[in-house]
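Trying the structure run again after the queue cleared.
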Amino acid sequence: MVRIVIADDEKWVRAIVKTMILSAQNPDFSIVGEASDGREALDLCTKLSPDVLVTDIKMPEIEGLELIESLRQINPYLKTIIISGYDEFRYAQKAVELGAFSYLLKPIEEEDLINTLVKAGKAVQEEKERKEKETLLRIQHEAGFNLLREKFLNELVSKDDFLTEEIKKQSKRLGIKLSNPVFYVIIISIDDYEVKFKNLSKEQKFAITSKLKSYLDWISKKYFSGYSFFSHMEENEIVIICNTENILENEYIKSKLSCIQKIIKRNTGITFTSGISSHGQGVNRLNTLYLQAAEALKYKMINGKGSIIFYNSLAGMDKNKIAISSDFVNELALDLELLDKKNVNLIIDSVFMQLNSHKASSPHSIKSALWNFILDVINKLDCKEIIMEKMFEFNHECVYEKFKDLETLEDMNVYIKELFLNILNNFIVKKIQCSQNAVETAKNFLDKNYNKKISLEMISNYVFLNPSYFSELFKKETGQNFIEYLTNLRISKAMELMRNTNMKTCEICEAVGYSDPKYFRKLFKKVVGISPSEYKKQA
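Done. Tokens:
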């Protein structure tokens, strides 16, 4: 679409030009405005940004030639077609010098005007396409160049075998200046990344993290004479290489990071945790410094989200294994079975109070202690196999995968409470179900598992009842005690196998849950009245 503005102090001239353009019925032509003097034409072209201006050379306020010169500063891509009664070379020459696209003499021929407009429109389109192509190439070049810089900076912190000469060569090629003697590495880790970015598209994630990085670029250059870049090792991390003339005080680094934390949280809602290395001399130390910053960042679990953690503050940390008191394990297991939600939460809080006294310990040892605590409690519970298999929608592996990704002690406290309260709720549901049909539940279980090693205690646990109470209830409803019922069930299954298969007696013995054929024969005769071999003959 060619957007056109017509400017002439004579209304009838504007009307003729407009009529000529409209009569051409060219769908690419669109008249967006008319002006009766040079000032109005300048204002219209500034406001509407047309592609073509058709203007008289002689107008009130601002003449055509002056108008062209003014508009060239505002819109260099505007094509100006001069119409005039002055058949003088100096006007045409001046118009061309000022960038006029064409010079038409009055009276205007319709064909000349339309052909000129078509050419002007084509020129505008070609310039737009050329501009877009140039912009795209520039963006691609800048993007490619930035990716090369990012790749090189990632290699600087991840490799320990970079030659100094190679570093100097690459740095010069990519415009990276690392000439100061002192180096630090800071790793910025976005808090709750998996939660906050889980449902975002790749483009949305990039937009948010790019905004965060723009703030970090500013602080890197202004205060640390360095560079910030996206980590190629962790999706939620941005790395800063600091390169200063002098060693920086921890308080100075902390004050700058605290300031940018507040700005970023206010403008993006994002919080982050920082791990800072000790200082090092020489660019070859960057890999070591990066590993120090990464080690410091692990203490986010203890220090909490949004913390600023210095590697040189970790000296003297106790890395010995931590064991949570067995008293806590026994108490929690008992309270779960007693369905005491309040005490369950109190005991878990007590565990974390104990761990707070171990804040000088390594994150790994604290996390391992908590995981072992979870397993120890579950192993104390009745029907632990059922719990491990069926507790809410998780299995053992899923619980561990979720647990190991938790970032702080606070997160772990919340998760462990949710975990054990879900186990407790499973106990409640099971107890309600089993209190109503405990014997039927037991009989169904036995019917499916008669060939396994089953005890009264095991089946009592399965239906969440005391063994003595369950034994009395079972005999009352079936007329047999548990052992008699299981024996009769097994012998009944053995008789079916003898009638319907060619299995040997020793094979049938094992198939119905007995390991001793001699004992099986004796038991069979006691129940049926004849030996297995005699029964097989009769069958």
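Residues 319-479 form one domain. Worth checking whether this holds up in the mutant runs.
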